[in-house]
Amino acid sequence: MEVGVLGAGQLGRMLALAGHPLGLRFCFLDPTPNSPASGLGEHVVAPWDDSAALARLARADVVTFEFENVPVDALHWLRDHVRVLPNPRALEVGRDRLQEKTRFRELGIPTADFRAVDDEASLLAAVAELGTPCLLKTRRFGYDGKGQALIREPAEASAAYAALAGQPLILEAFVRFQRELSILCVRGQSGETRFYPLIENQHREGILRLSRAPALQVSPEQRASAERHAERLLADLDYVGVLALELFDVGGTLFANELAPRVHNSGHFSIEGARTSQFENHLRAVCGLPLGDTSLLGPSAMLNLIGHVPPKAPLLEVPDLHLHDYGKAPRAQRKVGHLTLRARDDAELETRLAHVQALLASG
Amino acid sequence: MEVGVLGAGQLGRMLALAGHPLGLRFCFLDPTPNSPASGLGEHVVAPWDDSAALARLARADVVTFEFENVPVDALHWLRDHVRVLPNPRALEVGRDRLQEKTRFRELGIPTADFRAVDDEASLLAAVAELGTPCLLKTRRFGYDGKGQALIREPAEASAAYAALAGQPLILEAFVRFQRELSILCVRGQSGETRFYPLIENQHREGILRLSRAPALQVSPEQRASAERHAERLLADLDYVGVLALELFDVGGTLFANELAPRVHNSGHFSIEGARTSQFENHLRAVCGLPLGDTSLLGPSAMLNLIGHVPPKAPLLEVPDLHLHDYGKAPRAQRKVGHLTLRARDDAELETRLAHVQALLASG
After folding, report:
1. How far apart are CA B295 and CA B273, in angstroms?
2. So what's the pLDDT on residue B69?
3. Deepest of A38, A179, A281, B235, by most Cβ within 10 A of its Cβ?
C-alpha cells in the first residue's frame, strides 16, 4: 500500500519511519529538495499545484498531508482523483483562524472572543468591543508566533494594523491563561476515536520548547471536557486520522486556541512514550487499519532542539532519552530535532529533565 | 555521518530505521535490487567485489555489515580504505564453523565436540571417534538448517558425505539439549560491554519461529556464564558492535553453538521490548556514541512471519503488538516480517502469545 503525503518535512519523515514497519510505501510532494523525508520514500520535487506531480500523488492508495498551506485547488483536484484523508475541509478550517474560531463557537467549544477584521475601521470597532489587551492576527499562515501583533491599548491598533495589513485578519480577545495544554486524538474510518492523555506545553519566543505527557493536575472533568471538545470537532469534520487541539487552561476551564488537522509537535513524545505513536496511529487510521493503544508507557517529556543539534554523546548517556535528528541544516529558530524522555514516575522524569535542560543550556 | 552497510536485507532495513533518528545516513551495497533496505538510503546494486561499488562504500564514515558471506578480498580492500566495524576477523571466524568451534574451545567456552572433515576417510574416522548420532555440516554458507545432514548410525555416513561433498565440512557431536538460548551483547569503542537478557528460541524446520525475552528459569549462574562466554569472544575479536551467541542449555550447562557477528533475528524483540534496540545499540557502537540501556520494558516475544504476511487488521487489534513487514515478496520458508509482543508480566505475555499464534495458524 502506498501513502501519498503533501509535504516532506519532519512530520513526513516521522510518518515514514512509523509506516515502513507496517509495510507502507511513501510518495511525498514538496517543492523543497533535500527535505527531511526525502530519503524515506519517493520525493516529487515540484510546486504544490504542478499537475504532473499531483497526478503522480493520485496514484497512491490514499493521500494525507503534513503541511497545511497546500493550495485549495490542488486539494480539490486530488480529492476528485484519490481518497484524501483527513477530510480536506479540516485543513481549510484549520488554516483559517476565522473559520476555525467560528467552528469552535458553533460547536459550543469555549474560545476567546473574536471579530473579523477587514479594514482599519473594523479593527478600531473590534478593539472597542473586545477591549485591550487583544491580539491582531493574520487569518492564515500563522505559526510559531508569526503573523500576530499584541495591542496593549487602543492607541496601538493602527500600528498593529499597518504591520499586518494586506492579508485577511482577525482580532482576538486576550486570554489570561494559566497554562497551555493540547489533546491529541485519532479517529478511524469506522468513527472509533481514541485519545492520548492531555499534554502540557511550554512555549518561548512563540516556539514550542517542552511538552509533558501526561499534563499534571488535570481533573477528570477537565480531561472529559477536552475529549468532548475534540470529539465534536472530529465528528463535525467527518475526520479520519490524528488531530491536535491546542487549549488554554483558564482557571480550570479549557478554551480552544487552535486545531491542527495532522500529527503535531506536542505529540512527538508518543514515539517512545506511548504504546502506539501518533504517527503510527495516523497511518493506521488513513489506511483503514485498527487503531492502536494510546496509553503511556510512563510519564514522558519532549524537548525541541531549536537552531542546531547539540553534541550527541552527552545526551545519549541519559537513560531512556531518545534523539530525533531531522537531518536539517542548522538555522536560528528552526526546529531541527527533538528529544524524548521517559521515566518510571514523575519524580524521575523531573530529575532527568533538569539534567537534560542543563546539558542543552551548555551545548 | 554516513554508515556504509554490506547487505541491504531486513537487518539493514531495521538498522536504517533505527539510525535515521540519530541523524545517520546510509549507503548499502547489495547485488539484489529492490531489497528491504533499498528505500531507506542509497543502494549501490553491484557484485560484492565490484571495485567502483566498494570505492563508493569506502567514502562512508564507517562500514558495517548485515550479511556474512561477503568475499574476503572485498573486506580486506575495504579495511584498507575505511574503518570497518566490527572487526572483519569476527566475520571470518563467524562464517566458518571450524574456525568458530576452534575459537570456542581455545577460549574455554563449552561446545559440542567436533572434527574437521576433508574427505570420506576422515569422516569415517571422525564418526568412529564422536559416535552417533552426529551432524555433518558445511563449514560455510549454512543457515536456517541448510547445509547439514544428520548421521543416525555409522552406515549413514557415506550417504551424508555424498550429499554435502565438494565443500569443506565439519562433523559435530550431537548435543542433547533441553532448549536453545541466545545472548546478545554490544561492545563500544572504549571496550564497554552491555548484555541483553538471555533469550529463549524455538526453531521449526530449521527456522527460528519464536523468541522470548527474558528466557524463563535462568539461574544467576547461567546468566553469568553466558555473559562470561560472550565477553571472552568480544575481547578476543576486539569487537565493536552487536554480537549474538547462540547457546544450547544442556542440563543447566550452556554450550556455545554459533556466533553471529551482527544484529540477530533473536534480538528483534528489542525494537519495542528493550530500552534501546539492538539496531540502535549497534549503530551507537560503530559510530562511537555511548551505548544505550539494554534492560527490558517488559517480558517480550518475537514471532517470525514465514512465507507471507498474514492479514494485518486482526494482528493490529492485539494490544502491544508491533508489526514489522520487511516489504519482501512472499515465498515459502522466507522470513518476510516479524511481530513483537510486549506485556506487563509473564502471564499476560502467555495469553497474548496464545492468541496471536492462533491468529497466525488461521491466517
Report:
1. 9
2. 84
3. A281
CB distance A172 to A113 below 8 Å: yes
Domain identity same for A155 and A75: no
Count H helices and E strands in chain A, helices first: 12, 17
User: Does a cis peptide bond (omega within 30 degrees of 0) precede residue B330?
Assistant: no
Distance from CA of A202 to the nearest CA of B (A): 23
Residues A165 and A204 grouped into a single domain: no
Q: Do A325 and B275 touch (CB under 8 A)?
A: no
Of chain B, the percentage scoring pLDDT greater than 70 comes to 99
**Integer Cα distance of A246 and A218 in angstroms:** 15
Cβ proximity of B304 and B209 under 8 Å: yes
Q: Rounded distance, CA A71 to CA A48, Å?
A: 7
Contact A322 B21 (CB under 8 A): yes
| Residues of B in Cβ contact (< 8 Å) with A319 | 275, 293
Q: Write the pLDDT tens digit of every residue in B46-85.
A: 999 999 999 999 999 999 999 988 888 899 999 999 999 9
Tens-place pLDDT, residues B92-139: 998 899 999 999 999 999 999 999 999 999 999 999 999 999 999 999
Inter-residue contact B339 to B302 (CB < 8 Å): yes
Q: Could you give the strand order of the β-sheet that contains B148-151, starting from the edge strand earlier in sequence?
A: B114-117, B169-173, B134-138, B148-151
8 A C-beta contact, residue A309 and residue A295: no
Structural domain range at position B219 = 179-362
Instruction: Give Cβ neighbours of residue A299 (< 8 Å, ≥ 6 apart).
Output: A212, A213, A214, A342, A343, A345, A346, A349
Q: Kindly report the backbone phi and psi dihedral angles of residue A34, in degrees, each rounded to the nearest multiple of 5, phi listed first.
A: 50, 50
**Do B49 and B143 fall into the same domain?**
no
**What is the ipTM for the molecules in this complex?**
0.94
Number of A–B residue contacts, CB under 8 Å: 73
Distance from CA of A283 to the nearest CA of B (A): 12
Best mutation target among A283, A302, A316 (most B Cβ atoms within 10 Å) is A316
Cα of B287 to nearest chain A Cα, Å = 10
pTM score above 0.80: yes
The domain that holds A224 is classified in CATH as 3.30.470.20
**Contact check, Cβ <8 Å, A293/B320:** yes
* Secondary structure, 3-state, B128-154: HHHCCCEEEEECCCCCCCCCEEEECCH
Contact B289 A313 (CB under 8 A): yes
| In contact, B30 and B88? CB cutoff 8 Å | no
pLDDT grade for B38, boundaries at 50, 70 and 90:
very high
CATH code of the domain covering residue A15? 3.40.50.20
